[in-house]
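Progress note, project year one: complex with calcium ion.
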Amino acid sequence: MLLSIAMLSIFGIISHKRGSEHRRTVEALNESEQRFHAIFDNAAIGIAKVSTDGQFQEINKEFCRIIGYTREEVLSQKLGFQHITFPDDLETCWDLAKKLLAGVVQSGSVEKRYVRKDGTVVWVELSVCLLNSSMGLPLCFITSVCDITERKQAEEDTKLSDLLFQNGTEAMTITDGDGAVLKINPAFTKLTGYTADEVIGKNPKILQSGRHDRAFYQKMWQAINTTGRWQGEIWNKRKNGEIYAEWLSINTIFNQDGSVHRRVALFTDISEKKKSEELIWNQANFDFLTQLPNRRMFHDRLELEIKKAYRAQLSLALLFIDLDRFKEVNDTLGHDKGDMLLKEASLRLCACVREIDTVARLGGDEFTVIVGGLNDLSNVERIAQEILKKLAVAFQLAEEFVHVSGSIGITFYPKDGTEVEELLKNADQAMYDAKRHGRNRYSYFTPDMKKAVQMQMHLVNELRTALAEHQFRVYYQPIVELATGSVRTAEALVRWQHPTRGLVSPAEFMPVAEQCGLIVDIGDWVFREAVSQAARWRISQCTEFKISVNKSPVQFQSQGSNHSAWFAHLANLGMTAQSIVMEITQGLLLDASPALSDQLLEFRNAGMQISIDDFGAGCSTPVFSNQIKIDFIKIDQSFVRGLTAESTDSVICEAIISMAHKLGIKVVAEGVETEEQRDLLLKAGCDFGQGYLFAKPVPVEEFEALLCQEGGHSYLKRCSLGKFNLE
Ligand code: C2E
Ligand code: CA
Ligand code: CA
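Model obtained:
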């Protein structure tokens, strides 16, 4: 401002020079002008002389620096302030110019922006006055500008920080070096319920929930005092008394002397997050249906119990409980009822043990119980008995009453094993042992079980390669028509030609193959072999020749079994299903589900005959299906073995034969070893016989040799009419 006044006077002098004192005046003027230029050029503020229409007429160095143009550029390009003013600020500038020109104001000032030559924007504080001629006519504007970009930036930053502080979702407090609250933001009030009036000047301790002990705060302050900062989870209390979890971070701003200037605390409510974390944790560790610990949690608990037992030099017991026939409940009554049963069973299990013991559900109908801190292993027996007793009580599922039982396997730490997986495996094996021995009982793990399982695993591995390496053979055993001695059917019986062990009986490997599902592939292979063989014998021996093929229930249940492939194989060889008899077990008919009946019907409808194998064995009531017509029943060897004229077995055989005939079913007697047996069976009306008396199961070539043998051979003598023929 001072400068503009100085200039005013200088310009005034120039315009008012008088003739008489011309020389002196000119000298003085020159001197003055030099002085002026020195001041003008070196002034710390930007100065410009601007015509009334806005064009720059003179600018000083600082002005040039501010706008980023050289003096020459500005003057030669005849730049006006309108060319370099930030567009948004132009109107204000023109307004001020107009007011000055109209004499409304003598001078004015604005904060405005210039766009520099390089395009950047610079903030200035501008003061302007209008210079008039002696006649009072407007001559020019004298403008002085100060670069205030930095100040503006700082103001902007403060504004932004304030915005952040006011609108941030994180609660904030600023405290002084003594811990008194200086400032809080709205988020703080929202979170804690305290207004500024209620907390300013107070210590943030008012938020303490009482959930943390002294040690917690000591540790926190130790960190703050040494590093200036701390962050972590903390439980605090709202004004309404509600306790909540927050994530808090505290930072310190120090004075130059190292003393504390301010502490800034930022925190967010993480109660919801904690809740959902808890939910996720629960879902990950507990079984949704029964609320019991799940497999994962069971693992953790068992690990913990093992450690405890180790330290205390005590034992622990692990019980593996599997519900017997639970699948039947699920299949027949539906999953809802199945779920009800599982829930009830879990309650019963919990009632059998102490609070400190763990009952877990591993999945399905498998439960485990960990009984820790055992002095006396026999205590577990009582628990196992109690569990069996409780599970044996009828379950009421809505209007239905259901009976299930449990099979329990028991193993001990450290006697049987020291690792989680090992103990679990032991208990599982012992449970299977309980199942094998008739269910509704418990078995203790023994090292033999481990050996048996290892052997079984070995067998499974060997079986896998056996198929690929063509180690299976099919042997054939004739089924002889007792009245005529003719043979039109042979049973296909698989053998395993083991590379080192020699011929292995199916009785040894079939149960394992069934368990591991390999029976499906083996069964497929036997079926194909049998069909091919039937095709050959139909040409070489007898056009009606049939082969009886055993089919395990597992093959029916397996999703991998592919019946259409069987039919395709028959068709490929130009064979009909009539060339095959399918031997199934009674148990299969007993459990027949609609899907299974459909499969059987499909075979039946294609012309395949159905035979019930091992009839009478292990089943108290004979099962027949109205839906599926049965062609043969095979009286189990156990009845034939004890067959003498006076034996009960002969009564049973007669009864079976007469019942079967009434139902239009033909009867095959299995395991016929003596002529007496054969004669008694024949007398009882039995249609066919199969057994060592006629022939053992033999390879194809031997079988063919048998068929070719002529009268007089010892073999033929054993047949009913002294001959053994094909027609
Ligand atoms: P199975 O179906 O009851 O077969 C009859 C079994 O009795 C055969 O045992 C046979 O060799 C034997 N046997 C025949 N005549 C006599 C006799 O006079 N006295 C005695 N003591 N036994 C006799 P094998 O061949 O050891 O087969 C055992 C079981 O393995 C079969 O019992 C059958 O259930 C199963 N099996 C065999 N091959 C297959 C197959 O390809 N598929 C399926 N699923 N099971 C098969
Ligand atoms: Ca059979
Ligand atoms: Ca049989």
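The domain at 473-491+526-712 is CATH 3.20.20.450 (TIM Barrel).
The first strand starts at residue 46 and ends at 51.
No further modelling is planned for this target in the current period.
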